[in-house]
Every structure is written in structure tokens, then in C-alpha cells.
Amino acid sequence: MPGVLTAYRWELRKLRAQKRTYLGLGAAALVPIIFVVALAAGGGRPNDVAFGHYVHDTGLAVPLVLLLFGSIWLFPLITALVAGDIVASEDRNSTLKMILTRSVDRQQIFAAKTLAAISYAVLAIAITGAVALGAGILASGFNPITSLSGTEVSASRGLLLVGASLLVYLLPILAIACIGVLFSTVFRNSGAAIVGTLMFSLLLQLVGILPGLGGLGPYLLSTQFNAWQGLLRTPIDWAPIARSAWVCAVYALPAITVAALVFLRRDVAES
Amino acid sequence: MAQAPPIEVRSLVKRYGEIVAVDHVDLTVNEGDVFGYLGPNGAGKTTSLRMMLGLIRPTAGSVRLFGRDPQLGVAALEGVAGFVEAPSFYPYLSGRLNLELLAALDGGGAEDRIDEVLEVVQLRDRAGDKVKGYSHGMRQRLGIASALLRKPRLLLLDEPATGLDPGGMRDMRNLIRDLSGHGITVLLSSHLMNEVEELCNRVAIIRDGSVAYEGELAELRARAGVSYRLRTTDDDRARGVAAAQSGIEDVGGANGEGVSFTARDEEAVAALSLALAESSALILELTPQQATLEDLFFQLTEGTPAPAEPVAVAEGST
């Protein structure tokens, strides 16, 4: 009997055949290139963000600066582009009735869709990281980087820390993906789900800067986009990373659980 | 132990708030049946089919496919295939890739049957084209192909000929006949009377969510009985004679349109012809008329008798 793996393979195959996938992944690759070209052409540096001061000294700083810039709307949007569509597209094409009457159960189809949305988000971040590193190293060289504590970190250890930062950055990204899947399942409309996911992300950022709500900051999803900075301290500060893990889980798990329940219980009629 | 029938539906109900889409439907489709599921648009046919395939949950009642409950999981759909409303596919994938996807979700070597089913529905030449470029008829055929991938023992088809041109409709009928000939039980939801009349041995007629009739098509016709149309040299007098004649009922017919009646048996008709001759209302035409499925459909779904079509003509004068 086919199972989750078969359904997952075909979800990826469907993503490979859709323009939106390439739009998202293309943006993930193009933004770092534009950023590096702009830096090289303009000669300035974004001094107001962490590691912005070092973008001309080492290519390792480029992906880190982009992680900060991208957290506002770029990566939530890239993530939502597929997560918000992954179930709703079946409604748009009226194809749920076809795949749910084969030999794979609903829960397996749902698991495959969630895994596919997550895989895409991971790939998007990996592409941004790889392209930013490559372009940054080409433009500024593979040199040591100065940590947030002011200590110099060798280029090879810096590379490891950039990789680890990307992994930590995935925590809020995966939470956004789960929220995108929830909206996709509930709204049954790609546009509403994608915009809804992005609005949700932006709303949390707004809450984070509102006066009087500062106490909520550590528990907002938007704040978790900065947790990776703990890795770039000497010694490594694990507290924001640990907090990010459970805060992101608090957002992701209820969202994906509700999405699963809705998907499993819903009547599949024409929308 | 006797094998469970392909479809057994008991007291099936589906409510959407105040609206009752399906109201205590009972159906049994037996092995080898080509079962016509008839009803006007909105009568609840598609909702019933969705419940049979486990796509929507019944409010009450039960569905069993070969004795298994489709609400408990897709294991109940083993040996079952079909589509509700128009079959749908991923428009950005080719017909073949769509079938490969569905075959992968079927397992059991369904991939090996792709070429064969494409051949059956005559789509092999266009299998590499993206589905978004397919005509409605091609999508219908691809829907049949996707169903055949599962090597079904039971096919549920919802309006398979809808939107097809006459040639496509003929091909679809031939295909269903052929599949039935290979031992596949078919539930054919349709509102095309000639299609059902041509293909089905048993029917259920659904009206406002309830089954108005379920049984053999021949039995339904017999139940409707045979009516007669009479034209004489004096229809007014003939009407009076017929009304007074024992065994003759439902005498009617407007002026200038002859006389219509139903008869208990043929002897009563013979006695009437003699009485007419004796009263000098000489018979010009006496035609038995068999109700068509369409007539019966209208009678059962709208409660209005419709004109029947002649089955044999007995014309003459005395």
C-alpha cells in the first residue's frame, strides 16, 4: 500500500511543475545577488543592522544581514507562497475528490502536503544562504568575522556558525509554514491564505514595536527570527535559541493540529 | 456466507443546516448491475455519491461498499473507482503524469496499466499534453482512464456523458457497456433518460433527496401499465361508450385529439371495440402506448403524467 512517502514524492513533483515554486525559489536566489551587487556598486554598508558593518570585510556577513532583512516580509512571503497554496490549490483545481478516493488515507495526504511545504521552505532558506555566501565571498572574500561580543571568529568556524544560524532561523520559518498550511486548509483559497499568513507575520512584528507591549516581545514569532544571533556571541548564548524552539512550537503545533483536524473532518464538496 | 453487495445504502441522510440534501435514501446495487441513479439537478444524486465515496460525512445512515464503510478509510474503496461531477486533474501536468500520480497513490502495479487504460479511452496520442489544453470530452475520458487504473469491480460514474458531443456520448455508452460486459458493476448517475434506458437493468429515481422508485427498469414500466389512444368517427360518443365499459379506466382526451384510456387487460379492449362498433362510433385508430422512462421519470419526480410514445400501431376501421 502506498503511504506518506509516495504522496510526499508526488507533492514535490507537483511543486516542481508550478510557477509559484520557481517564483519563490527564484526570489530566494535573486535577492542575495541584488544585495551584493548593490553593495559592490554603492560601496555603502547597512550599519544599523548586526553584521552590516562587516559586509565589505567578509562574505560571511552577507547571509547574516540578509536573514535580518528577510525576516520582515521576504521569507514569510516566500514561505507562504507555497504553504498557503498547498491545500487550497486542490480546492481550486477540484482535485481533492480525485486523490482522496485512491488508496492513500487523508492523514497521509495531509502529512505529505505539510512535509512538502516545509521542504520547500527549507530549500528556500538553503538557497538564500548558499547564494548569499557564494556572492558575499566573491565580493568580500572568505575572511574571519567579528562576533556580536567583539571577538574575532575564524572564517572556517564562522562558516559553521552561519550554517547553524540558518538552521535556527528555520524554526520561525517552519512555524510560518504551519500557519500557512492552516490558512490554506481553512480558507480553501490560495490568495487569502498567502496574504493571511503574511499579514499574521507582519501583525506580530507590529505588536513587537508597539509601546507598552514590550513584555510580549520574547514570545512573539517575529522575535524568534533573531534567535540565531545567540550563536554569534562568545561564548554561545543558547537561551534565545532554546526559547525560540519552544515559542515556535507553541505557534506551529496548534496550527498544524487544527489544520489536520479540519482536513480530516471536512466534507469534500465543490467550493 | 453470501458476499456483501457492491453498494448497500441504508437510511442515508445529509443535512446542511435546514436543507435536507439526502433524505433517508435506501439503495442496493447488486453484483453485475448497471444501475441507473436518476433524478433532476439538485435532487441529491451527487451528494449521495460523495457519501458513497467517503468524501462527505452522512448526517445519519450508512453506506457499505462490498460490506465496508468508506467513512472508516480508503481501505473500503478497494476495488471501487469513479468520479463525482466532472473528473478533475492537475492542469499543469500532462494527462500521463496525472495518471502516474494517481497510479502511485493506488499502488498495486497501477503504473503498469497506464498505457492500457489510455488505449481504452483513446487518449494515448494526447497523453503527453498538459490537461489544461484538454477538451471537456478528453477530461471525461481521462476520468474513466483514472478509474480503470484501479481495476475496479465497482464503478461510480456521475453524469459521465455530460458535455460530450453525440459521438462522445455514443463512445461513452459503448465503453460503459463494454466494462459491464467485463463483469464490472456500474452505478451510473444521470439525467439522460435514453442513456439510462439503453444501459441500465435497474434504476433508482430520486426526488427532493428521497428515493421515489428503486427496482428493475422492466418492473417500473410494467407498473406504469399500457395506455391506449383511440380515434373514431365520433369521438364524443366513443368517450361515453368507453367510460361506461367495464375494465376501461382513466378515459380522457381533449376534443379533436381522440380518446385516451387505460385498460385492465386486452379482453376489456376487445369488448370496447365491439361496443364502439355497436354504437356506430367506428374505430379509425387504436394504438397501445408504452410509457417511456422519461414519462415515468416525470411522473415520479413531478407527479405529472407525460405523453407516452406508441409502441405498436393497430390502425384500421370497421
Description of the structure:
- The complex is a heterodimer of chains A (271) and B (318).
- The model of chain A has no long low-confidence stretch (mean pLDDT 94).
- Chain A has 10 helices and 2 strands, in the order H-H-H-H-H-H-H-E-E-H-H-H.
- Chain A has a two-stranded antiparallel ribbon with strand order 1-2.
- Chain A has helices at 4-16, 19-42, 61-70, 74-83, 88-93, 96-99, 106-140, 155-187, 190-209, 239-265; strands spanning 145-146, 152-153.
- By secondary structure, chain A is mainly α.
- In chain A, 67% of the residues lie in helices and 1% in strands.
- Chain A is globular.
- Chain B has 10 helices and 15 strands.
- Chain B is of the alpha/beta class and 318 residues long.
- Chain B is elongated and about 80 Å long.
- Chain B has helices spanning 45-52, 95-106, 114-120, 136-148, 166-181, 193-199, 217-224, 235-244, 266-278, 293-302; strands spanning 7-16, 19-29, 34-38, 60-65, 80-83, 154-158, 185-190, 202-207, 210-216, 226-232, 248-252, 259-263, 283-290, 309-310, 314-315.
- In chain B, a hairpin with a 6-residue loop joins strand 11 (248-252) and strand 12.
- Residues 305-318 of chain B have low confidence and may be disordered.
- In chain B, the strands form 3 sheets. A 6-stranded mixed β-sheet of chain B has the order 5-6-7-3-8-9, with helices on both faces. In chain B, strands 10, 11, 12, 13, 14 and 15 form a 6-stranded antiparallel β-sheet that branches.
- The interface between A and B is medium-sized, with 28 and 35 residues.
